[in-house]
């Protein structure tokens, strides 16, 4: 009898299953073998419109940045800045500084960044500060102090990512997005990257590839183009501080200031000659969310515990959300960018973070970080030319066989009205199908056909 009752219950459950779900939530090929978590909630009424496997822990990819941004904004506020201090150390005798120039790195990820051009001019400001003090010779050298613990790329990142600009690791001193332009067929770089060895290997098929291991000075370039000396690629650098000191030495020389090659004896009084201030925290967070910048994300994660390890920063992040009543027990967080495939978040966790921020005093600022569909960033083509264009803002996340979305729908007044989280892992269909399935789901929910 018990077996018959169970079978009857299963039959009834199948019979009343909504017809709309006959082809799955997203209608993609192989959906039955794909891990999908969806959570959509009306913030005004508290009604959950869609809850499909929302507790399933999945790889978030760059959607991780939505959590990082919420954490950094909550702890640091919108107006915090990184301050990089430049000092003279030693004794000034007329036009000679018998000592060093000491730069105190603050782990600012935006220093001389291509993405904040209006804030550039770090080296020029140092040269100007020395000229104002009549300095024409520095007997010592340029010393960059870095106090950040466990710098550089994460061990959990894929080695195939590390040489490409999106795989730049965070250091205690960062410069020019920690990247340089390399001309593989001459071995030259711009700016100069001291010690970088460029090795070119000719291939007969496939696309160009760059490989450089963690802490390695050897860049492997695999290409079919081994003749064009003007051909260039952007790549990450193993030591941003060395690149900076090389460039600053040349800049000072051009300004009539000579610099020695060996640091003076340590010690002596330091005199601050210039302090570089980064853009506001809110500006950095907006930039990293719209462009999905991994380096900026790692910098903002570490900013919440600047003197501690990455592990300590993540611990503080988890404690923050737990203190706000959000269950973090079944989350795995290794970085701030989501570049590692080892992170695990659930759609429900992401939805809870989004909801908390939408109801906080920081709601307007945080919501403004998300790029609007059909208009900005990585969702410029998503829901373009539909009734939802500009009415939804989403952070995307994508790596191999992973496609995720998290963000808000806005009401007519521009305030978040719904949280939206769609996470798809391990799909077998073309990525285009996943994108279209997510678009159709949102159109059915918020812009049903008349």
Strands, helices and their partners?
Elements (H helix, E strand, L loop, with lengths): L1 H14 L19 E8 L5 E5 L4 E2 L5 H13 L6 E11 L2 E9 L17 H11 L4 E2 L3 E4 L33 E5 L4 E3 L6 E6 L6 E3 L6 E6 L9 E4 L3 H15 L3 E2 L10 E8 L3 H11 L2 H9 L7 H14 L21 E2 H12 L4 H5 L24 E8 L2 E9 L5 E10 L5 H16 L4
Parallel strand pairs: 5-6, 5-7, 6-14, 10-12
Antiparallel strand pairs: 1-2, 1-19, 3-16, 4-5, 4-15, 8-9, 8-13, 11-12, 17-18, 18-19
Describe this protein's structure.
- With 450 residues, the protein is an alpha+beta fold.
- It has 2 domains: 23-79 and 281-446, Beta-lactamase (3-Layer(aba) Sandwich); 83-277, no CATH class.
- It has 10 helices and 19 strands.
- The strands form 5 sheets. Strands 4, 5, 6, 7, 14 and 15 form a 6-stranded mixed sheet that branches. Strands 2-1-19-18-17 form a 5-stranded antiparallel sheet, with helices on both faces.
- α2 (64-76) runs antiparallel to α5 (281-291) and α2 (64-76) runs parallel beside α6 (294-302).
- The longest helix has 16 residues, at 431-446.
- It is globular and about 75 Å long.
- Mean pLDDT is 93; it is low at 1-22.
């Amino acid at each position: 009898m018990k077996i018959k009752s169970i079978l009857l219950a299963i039959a009834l459950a199948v019979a009343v299953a909504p017809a709309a779900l006959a082809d799955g939530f997203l209608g993609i090929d192989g959906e039955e073998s794909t891990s999908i978590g969806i959570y959509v909630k009306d913030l005004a009424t508290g009604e959950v419109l869609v809850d499909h496997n929302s507790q399933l822990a999945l790889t978030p990819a760059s959607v991780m940045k939505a959590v990082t941004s919420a954490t950094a904004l909550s702890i640091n506020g919108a107006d915090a800045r990184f301050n990089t201090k430049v000092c003279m150390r030693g004794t000034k005798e007329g036009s000679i500084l018998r000592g060093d120039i000491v730069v105190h790195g603050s782990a600012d990820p935006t220093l001389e960044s291509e993405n904040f051009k209006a804030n550039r001019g770090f080296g020029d400001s140092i040269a100007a500060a020395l000229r104002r003090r009549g300095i024409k010779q520095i007997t010592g050298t340029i010393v960059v102090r870095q106090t950040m613990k466990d710098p550089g790329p994460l061990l959990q990142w894929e080695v195939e990512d590390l040489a490409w600009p999106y795989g730049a690791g965070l250091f205690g001193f960062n410069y020019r997005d920690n990247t340089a332009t390399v001309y593989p067929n001459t071995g030259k770089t711009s700016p100069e990257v001291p010690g970088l060895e460029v090795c070119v290997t000719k291939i007969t098929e496939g696309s160009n590839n760059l490989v450089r291991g963690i802490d390695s000075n050897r860049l492997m370039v695999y290409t079919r183009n081994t003749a064009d000396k003007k051909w260039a690629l952007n790549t990450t650098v193993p030591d941003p501080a060395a690149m900076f000191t090389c460039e600053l030495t040349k800049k000072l020389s051009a300004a009539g200031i000579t610099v020695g090659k060996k640091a003076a004896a340590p010690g002596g009084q330091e005199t601050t000659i210039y302090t570089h201030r980064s853009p506001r925290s809110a500006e950095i967070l907006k930039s990293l969310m719209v462009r999905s910048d991994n380096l900026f994300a790692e910098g903002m994660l570490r900013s919440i515990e600047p003197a501690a390890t990455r592990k300590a920063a993540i611990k503080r992040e988890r404690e923050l959300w737990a203190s706000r009543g959000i269950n973090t027990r079944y989350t795995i967080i290794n970085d701030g960018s989501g570049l590692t495939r080892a992170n695990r978040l659930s759609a429900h966790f992401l939805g809870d973070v989004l909801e908390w921020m939408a109801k906080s005093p920081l709601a307007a600022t945080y919501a403004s970080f998300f790029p609007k569909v059909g208009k900005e960033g990585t969702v410029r083509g998503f829901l373009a030319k539909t009734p939802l264009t500009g009415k939804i803002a989403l952070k995307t996340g994508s790596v191999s066989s992973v496609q995720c979305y998290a963000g808000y729908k806005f009401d007519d007044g521009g305030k978040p009205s719904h949280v939206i989280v769609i996470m798809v892992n391990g799909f077998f269909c073309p990525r285009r199908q996943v994108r279209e399935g997510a678009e159709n789901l949102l159109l059915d929910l918020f812009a049903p056909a008349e």
